[in-house]
Amino acid sequence: MTILNIETSGRICSVALTRDGALEMQLDDREGMQHANRLAPFVERCMAELHRKEEKLDAVAVSMGPGSYTGLRIGLSLAKGLAFSLGVPLIGVDTLKIIAVKAMFRSMDWTGDEVLVPMVDARRMEVFTAPYDFALNALAEPGPMILDKDSFADLLDSGRQLWFMGDGAEKAKEVITHPNARWIDGLLPQAKDMLALSEKAMREGDFLDIAYSTPNYLKAYHTTKPRNPLA
After folding, report:
1. Which residue from 119, 121, 102, 111 is spatially nearest to 161, judged by alpha carbons?
2. pLDDT of residue 14
């Protein structure tokens, strides 16, 4: 199966072609929030590569959030249009799980008893987060969290190591000082990290409704008016 994976939830604008468990092509822009300019050309290059190889696309997968409101809307809008125009399924992938899976594939001598805690920055001391075991079962409901010294205290006190990662984890270092807390720095979601999750969804027929699916913001999106009405 050949899947076009799109990840626009954070600073990296990323597209990857994957086929039968292997990465065929990846394009990343790390300049920061250039998704509106970079995403469509990246997708065009991937589709041109498919055409050159005389291959067809079987599905489009997109990161559904949590993350940047604007980035998620851009990614899902393009993914919907592409899936509809090609008549292929649309797959939604949870951003927190993308980060957790990326950590799993790091060479960390995992025992499998650790708890993975991906964190997406939500400004100030707030993050979007959830703790996951190695079967990707959420040990608490994913959602926004204001970080303090008692965050994840019950799990940390249980004796299991909690590994924090993602662009929100840096803030957690400031307040979580428990000896069972561990950190993976610099781990951000990319489209290539979606491979295992998008292929699993494809095998299981877990598809989105192209017309009605919306990003998983995890909290209400509020628009604001500029102070200068002409801005």
Report:
1. 111
2. 97
